[in-house]
Amino acid sequence: MSFAALAYTVWAIEIFNMHLVEPKTVPSLNLEANHAIWQLPFRSFFITGILFSSVSIMVWLLILTGKLTLVHQVLPRVIWHAHEMIFGFAMLMAVGFVLTAAKTRKYVSCIKGIPAGLLLAIWGVIRIALFINSQLSVKLAIALTLVWWLAIVLIYSHIVLSTKNKRDYIFISIFCVLASFDLATLSFSTIGETSLALHFTRAAVLMFSILISIIYGRVITLFIIQNSNTKPYKHILWVEKLLLPTAVTGISVFIIGYFIELPITPAMLMTTAGCLHLLRISKGLSLKALMLPLLWVLNISYAFMGLGLITLGLSYGIDSITFSTASHLITVGSTGLIIIAMMSHVQLGYSSQLALVKPQILAAFIMIFTASILLFTLSKLGYQLIACVFSAGLWCLSFITFFLTFWPVQSKPRH
User: Is residue 51 a contact partner of residue 2, using CB atoms and an 8 Å limit?
Assistant: First the structure.
């Protein structure tokens, strides 16, 4: 696995008061800092995540089809796959975006050059250790995971405290919770508590939906307003007030319900949260927004999350819908689409360029969309292996297409 690093320029993002501007070039005698791939966390983390997700999915496909057998089995193969796609892939992308977004608010110093490379190196060693999957390598991965999360939380906390933006503090809490889920998944796997380890990976999916919700409310909504030339719209106030408490309560009930019997299940809370997400997105729809490919993809990605949560709730009462099948609407449909759309938006810029999305990028969107639909539909019909093969192939082809299309741009500084 080769690790790309961070690009010279990236949009300056203000969370809540979000506006995207291209940072001015500042001459420097530090050659490593001036290199296009060693400047901020955004590109290095995103490009590394793209490459890793493609390789990881291909390895998972080989394991499923019996073409590859892991020598050691400390982490069962299902746990390994879920952990690596949630904590290895999705969280790397989220951390790269949030670190860059927070940094650019008041141009506070952020990780770059060697420190950024060290973070990616630690992340890479964790991935290799978990693939080896022996008792010793997994224990090493746990130790390095703790170091990695401590570094991320400390770096982000420094940036946020320096900007004195209290509304960004919520990401510190989210990172801490996800770090605990990550460590719990690995730790319980080493002592044979597979069911409990799987429970925490599922809790991480629910937590990640909150992260997407916050990013949508603060960033994506602004994209829609700016790039479709529509007037700022008022959110549905009662939806905004209910959404986060409902989601947090649902996760809490889900986690606690594993250990003690509760008078309620998270089913109703998940379904309610999903409906609230769909109501939220309906307010921002407009004909102008739907005419721009990236904007309707962003809307579709958020709709997948709402539908995924509703389906997760239904899985408690419908035997033919499993938690795993339903959660893929979030992990494949919502996460996959939103990552490619956000990276494309950063590369293409504002409205004058958003209409110029290359056909191969549109094809990448369609492949992720199709992969999510096929994985859910075929799995529900009982063709799980076929569903995994087709969806895995489409996922890899989509991200490889994106990488080959944008690498020439991502590897050079913007002027």
Answer: yes
Contact 38, 6 (CB under 8 A): yes
Task: Assign residue 10 a region (left: φ > 0; alpha: ψ between -120 and 50; beta: otherwise).
Answer: beta
H-run or E-run covering 254: helix 237-259
What tokens were used for 118? 């060290």
What pTM value is reported for the model? 0.85
Q: What is the pLDDT of residues 168-211, one digit of tens each?
A: 889 999 999 999 999 999 999 999 999 999 999 999 999 999 99
Q: Which amino acid is at 283?
A: K
Contacts of 363 (CB under 8 A, 6+ apart): 398, 401
Q: Is the pLDDT of residue 22 over 80?
A: no
- Length, in residues, of the chain: 415
CA distance 85 to 375: 16
Helix intervals (H) in 283-383? 287-290, 293-314, 323-328, 335-348, 351-354, 359-380
- Nearest CA among 174, 118, 159, 125 for reference residue 145: 125
Contact between 74 and 190 (Cβ < 8 Å): yes
- Cβ atoms 71, 43 nearer than 8 A: no
For residue 337, what are its two tokens?
A: 């689409």
Confidence band of 294 (pLDDT split at 50, 70, 90): confident
Q: Are 232 and 225 in contact (CB under 8 A)?
A: yes
pLDDT digits (tens, 9 = 90+) for 368-382: 999 999 999 999 888
Helix (H) or strand (E) holding 245: helix 237-259
